[in-house]
Every structure is written in C-alpha cells, then in structure tokens.
C-alpha cells in the first residue's frame, strides 16, 4: 500500500489541514469533522488501487466523524460502495 498521509511527520498545527486535504484527495464527497483536540490529531492513511474501479484505503486516526448522504454516495459512482 502507498502511504498517503502520516501526520506524525508534521508539526501539530499543520495536521488538521493535512487530514482534511488527504480525505478530500481520495475522492470521497463527505462532511468531515475533527472531534478530538485539533493539535493532538493523528492519522495514518494508506491506499492501493487494485483495479480500475477498486481502491482500498486503510486509515488509523484519532477522533473524527465522516458523514455522507445518499446523494454524496451517488456522486462517487452508483456502483461503488
């Protein structure tokens, strides 16, 4: 898997912006909210493309909330979960 983000390599005040940027770069329309103390956020995000329509992401992170509506899911592609 390719390492997409590891916030341990960043200064604490850069982590939240990097976290939001990484999640938006993996093409997931969603509302993301950090629910932990922002300077203490940590995230390690890895990804791998297994085929033209199959991406696998593995994320280990501190508290956050991701919400997607049915409409946002359809924007990705109706055949994707």
Structure write-up:
- The protein has one domain (about 1-75).
- The chain has two helices and five strands.
- The protein has helices at about 15-25, 70-75, and strands at about 1-5, 30-35, 45-50, 55-60, 65.
- The strands form two sheets. It has a three-stranded antiparallel beta sheet with strand order 1-3-4. Strands 2-5 form a two-stranded antiparallel ribbon.
How are strands sequenced across the largest beta sheet? 1-3-4
Percent helix, as a range, is 10-25%
Helix-strand makeup class = alpha+beta
Tally of strands: 5
How much beta, percentage-wise? 35-45%
Detail the poorly predicted runs: none
Instruction: Please write the string of helix (H) and strand (E) elements.
Output: EHEEEEH
C-alpha geometry: flat
Give the CA-CA distance, first to last residue.
Answer: 20 Å
Nearest-integer average pLDDT? 79
| Largest beta-sheet details | 3 strands, antiparallel
Q: Kindly provide the radius of gyration, computed on alpha-carbon positions and rounded to a whole number of angstroms.
A: 13 Å
Tally of structural domains: 1
Tally of helical runs: 2
């Amino acid at each position: 898997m390719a390492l997409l983000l590891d916030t341990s390599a960043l200064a604490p005040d850069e982590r939240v912006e990097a976290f939001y940027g990484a999640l938006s770069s993996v093409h997931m329309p969603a509302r993301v909210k950090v629910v932990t103390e922002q300077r203490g956020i940590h995230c390690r995000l890895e990804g791998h493309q297994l085929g033209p329509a199959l991406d696998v992401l593995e994320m280990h992170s501190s508290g956050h909330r991701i919400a997607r509506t049915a409409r946002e899911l359809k924007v990705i592609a109706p055949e994707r979960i």
